[in-house]
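Exercise 7. Predict the joint structure of the components listed below.
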Amino acid sequence: MTHLQDQRPEYTPPSESGPDAPAGRDDSEALCEQVARAQAERATLRIVGGNTKAFYGRRVETAQALSTTGHHGIVHYDPVELVATVRAGTRLRDLERALADNGQRLAFEPPHFGDDATVGGMVAAGISGPRRPWAGAVRDFVLGVRIITSDGKQLRFGGEVMKNVAGYDLSRLMVGAQGTLGVLTEVSFKVLPTPHAHACLRLELPLTEALERLTAWGREPMPITGAAHDGEALHLRLEGGEGSVSATRQRLGGETEDSRFWSQLRELQLPFFDGAFDNDAHVLWRLSLPALARTPALEGDWLIDWAGAQRWLKSAEGCGFEDEPRADAHIHEAAIAAGGHATRFTPDANGASPFTPLPPVLAKYHRQLKQRLDPQAIFNPGRLYAEW
Amino acid sequence: MELLYDERIDGEIATVDKSGLMAAIMAVAPRLTLLDREEDLRPFECDGLSAYRVLPMLVAMPTTLAEVEALMRVCYEHAVPVVTRGAGTGLSGGALPLEKGVLLVMSRFNKILSVDADARLARVQPGVRNLAISEAAAPHGLYYAPDPSSQIACSIGGNVAENAGGVHCLKYGLTVHNVLSVEIVTIEGERMTLGGESLDTPGYDLLALFMGSEGMLGVITEVTVRLLPKPEVARVLMACFDDVERAGKAVGDIIAAGCIPGGLEMMDNLAIRAAEDFVHAGYPVDAQAILLCELDGVESDVQADCERVRQLLETAGASQIRLARDDAERQLFWAGRKAAFPAVGRMSPDYYCIDGTIPRRELPRVLKGINDLSAQYGLRVANVFHAGDGNLHPLILFDANQPGELESTEALGGRILELCVDAGGSITGEHGVGREKLNQMCTQFAADEITLFHAVKSAFDERRLLNPGKNIPTLARCAEFGAMHVHHGELPHPELPRF
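Solution:
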């Protein structure tokens, strides 16, 4: 059945957006064929976009690559609708530039981790940036997807409307599933206007006091959209109308700082993260905890983001090769005890899952869901957890 | 449309001996309230879609988690379907009972377990009313944002099951954006937690999957919601238009200018007249459309936004623009909108509410299409519209006592939903599919997509015992009823056998 939205002409950027804005290309037929062939040959597929987030998750061994980068372009973007529909292989920066040209943005501030980051990879990884506690996560802005299923068919779920409760929400289920349930080929996002005013502040405060103040401020309508503590100072970002931003800035004091702090934090490029992906010196962990949770008693350096809900740990524990599994389990347990979970960001040489193990009942339903949607385990087998 | 469960096309259901089942339940949950006499079952025969009624075999009203688990285990063993019901305010028949099933009524799970002002969250049982959460949070200056119009009565468990919306969705999101975690009892009687107090959890986003799943994947036994600080001020602008299309365009202009209003609602002339007659909100009855635009936040920002929006509305050709003088007038402006459904109800013996969504740019075309259909079927339609997020609520006025009028109303409703799907929208924005819109699902989704929905269902409920016959139609149903209306000269699902 053809919907009107399929008959709409494809988005064309205004001519001034420069010569390197590439024309769109629909490669979905070839992608479907590759999946169907893999199913027939009982092969497995490693789904790859820009390959910037390969470190995130277990390595997928012995699989042939399925590249989405040939399937790119903005399909629809009408700023008035606050919706952009994009092919998975589109470079994230191309989408962000088109939005910025219209005074809009992806409010969840996704990290790129490299120039070649694609929209599909960003959604599959499901990682949100510093604005997450205030604006929402990747999944909060996904309105619809197209996916290729394990039998090589391209299907559509959700759509380009803000509200849609017809059928199960398979669009949001795909966010963070890392391609283990299907190949993302197209995503529709809710986009938002960039606020009129912003300010970035640095307040010299010890961590405990900073967290106490953030808790109090959280109970007031304040235009905070970033709150991180680097061990020395609290970094705050304000975004909103001119009136509220300037009033809040005066009220909070502190010194003004460059907004680059926030892009460097998002991309894990602050000095704190130096050498984080090199296994010799230390291991980088992300702990996702209730914002008010006490910091677990783990050795290492901490950087606190998301007003306490995301804590980065640079740990020397487990760098010695044979200690690794025990050290990892220790950190997962500490995160669970604090009410959250941990993710190992520094790739693990032993192939263990970087993600906290699931409790038994949840694990059972994860396995069954994977089994029903990808019965032959074609897609990224073992990417999240070794068993499936 | 035939709304009652039809085993021929909706799937077979085992016939179980009622007294044997009751004995099995009582053996494991001796204190569980079970109702089985007709006069006790009668109050549960329908939900908010009251045109359709079925008496369940049994009603179970648990008060403890252990009772829910025990009940589920027995039903699983005996292959008895379970329909979960919250406050029974749903508008799509999602809690319509099954003659051969147990109706699990969660209304006794009605405690607010905790309100944590520092963490800005509330832990509540599923039977707690939506508004009661905001009331409990109010002393801390906090509130729960999603506000479906039934918020006085509807329960949070039902809100999660339907992914309920409200008039503030564009800015503050739906239920899915405001719930941190849910506790689930599975059909096999196991407990699991989806989501958590951290902002994400490892593995798949099952929390998102369960939102709006209409009781088909598990039973919700606890919900943790996010609370927000109350906005400092809220102002409402009312703009009148001589022309619906111009009002629709003004909505786009406001959003294009970078404003995200707290609420942005539109009503057409018939709805305006009904509301004004009922509530005396001060609406101009000769206007073809009015827009209500609420701007909320910090005082200085709201002032600037009000000025910006006022200019946009003027440029868009509004014939009259009024800013509510004070909070009392603001409430009055909203009272008309919030009473629009009952107001329309006064103009006609019955009305039928539709819940389609469309991309906003399609509004003029869809409204024209609704007008044409209204004339064709000889039934009046009043339009109330969550304009900010493209959610239309056409209200079809009819008289169920006139032979054939309910049937033509259903047919007209179906045609309006198809118009929405055709415009790139959806058959339901916030009321859910339930039993009501099963056939229209066949219009919105292709057979392969429906097959994948069934695959998801089977991962959590292989025996199809949780709320069977709702939300996702069988392919047999699509083959039989999905073909009611021919699309672009093609039958939907031509690949399926027809019988």
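Discussion. The CA atoms of residues 108 and 132 of chain A lie 6 Å apart.
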